[in-house]
Amino acid sequence: MSNSTVALPINLIPDEASPAWMNKGDNAWQLTAATLVGLQSIPGLMILYGGAVKKKWAVNSAFMGFYAFACVLVCWVGWGYHMSFGDALIKNIPFWGKPNVALNQQYLLGIAFSGKIPNATMVYFQFVFAAITLILIAGALLGRMNFYAWMLFVPLWLTFSYTIAAFSIWSPNGFLAKKGIIDYSGGYVIHLSSGAAGFTAAYWVGPRYNKDRERFPPNNILLMLTGAGLLWMGWTGFNGGDPYVVSVDASLAVLNTHICTATSLLTWLLLDITFFRKPSVIGAVQGMITGLVCITPAAGVVQGWAAIIMGIFSGSIPWFTMMVVHKRSLLLQKVDDTMAVLHTHAIAGALGGILTGLFAHPRLSFLFYTKYGQYVGLFYGFHMGEVSTGFRQVGIQLLGIFYVVTLNVVVTSIICLVIQSIMPLRMSTEDMEIGDEAAHGEEAYAIWGQGEKLGNSKSGGYDIESSAAKSRKAARQIEMV
């Protein structure tokens, strides 16, 4: 028998730019998936927020997301990535990583902690997840938060909350990761975190202007639907990219994501029709979001029929908490959560985490975690005669919920109190009555001819004094006289 060698195709031969350890297909998919997730934020959530709020808040709402995306990236490569996925800050207490830069060539071109991709790709992929978390928090604060306070909130919350949750749950060195928690793509780290933090921050910032809270119609539902569509389709990268390889598990995660989302949307829609006699477009968007959130911790570890069941639950339980419980709770009515992130992200994320503990399939979990018999949903624990393993999984999922909620309530409260000692968290009543023009000196939709009038008021840069601003200044001068 002769020994023969088969030459690799020229495009697969390793070289300095494509080292032997790197899989070109995996790397290409991770870069694509990361960009899809980035598009969920820029422009997805920007458009959704800009269309879902009153006209006078369209610019401010979109710009909160635009700023957060840029700010998170600079903080992420400066210290955030290593605090989330690097070496533990304290060896015996593995819940936070050491701050360090992720900028030098030697590190970025090396192999990542998971998958056959370079660190540069992993840093980019994880950044878009961190960024969208802050933008989701913004959804609870639209229509009244002082933009300068938001500028401080973003880096502080990323540093002292997001990095802790990410390290604890996603880093191979994290204590909840070692215990065996299942969070396939961010049901805990992103959605439960943003929901709990957003609701907490909304409590400290205070409510919107009274007239805004009483009536807050969307200024452009078609624009809102466009943003929602980008969010839905972008979730292909959100859940499909988390195996870090182009695998059958990634394919399953993508399909499950869309199955659950469609089911959730239809469930919410049917409930709206049944109880309110109207097929609400805004309600359908809410149902879409809760479906996306609920399937996220489970996407690649559950079967398709489980995704259907999760969609039914995600379209009904958050609907019930939003439409029934919210109206009967004094606390929920007191806290002004503009985009209802408590219901759509915190409750839907926690629900997804619990259902993952019930439906996680041992073989699918093996494809993702490469460990068999450790990640077993309760129903399969009964089927396999490993009941204690199934109950343990549910217990770990519940522990994760308690940990993330407690972390975010405490840290977010401290951050808000610190910022409040420096500057107001909330815009003044006068500025809230005006909206975008008071916050930024700009409006979303200029009235015919207004642009030329404003443009002629002062030349150069952005120093344009609006007619409304002039009126306010004149009124103050009259009062002084």
UniProtKB/TrEMBL annotation:
Locations listed in the record: Cell membrane
Transmembrane domains' residue ranges: 28-50, 57-79, 123-142, 149-168, 188-206, 218-238, 250-271, 280-299, 305-326, 338-360, 394-419
A GO cellular component entry from the record: plasma membrane
Bilayer topology: Multi-pass membrane protein
Keyword set includes Transmembrane: yes
A Pfam family the protein falls into: Ammonium_transp
InterPro entries xref list: Ammonium/urea_transptr (IPR029020), Ammonium_transpt (IPR001905), Ammonium_transpt_CS (IPR018047), NH4_transpt_AmtB-like_dom (IPR024041), RhesusRHD (IPR002229)
Keyword field: Ammonia transport, Membrane, Transmembrane, Transmembrane helix, Transport
Main location: membrane
Domain Ammonium transporter AmtB-like as annotated: residue spans: 28-445
GO MF, any single term: ammonium channel activity
Family: Belongs to the ammonia transporter channel (TC 1.A.11.2) family.
Protein name: Ammonium transporter
Taxonomic lineage: Eukaryota, Viridiplantae, Streptophyta, Embryophyta, Tracheophyta
